[in-house]
Amino acid sequence: MEQYENTIDIKHYLPHRKPMLMVDWILELSHQEVKTVFEIKSDNVFVENDAFAEVGLIENAAQTCSSIVGQSFFLDENHQVKDDVEVIGFISGIKKVKVLSLPKVGTTINTNAVLHSRFDTDDYSICTMMCTTFCNEVLLFEAEINLFIQEKR
Question: What is the pTM of this model?
Answer without folding.
Answer: 0.86
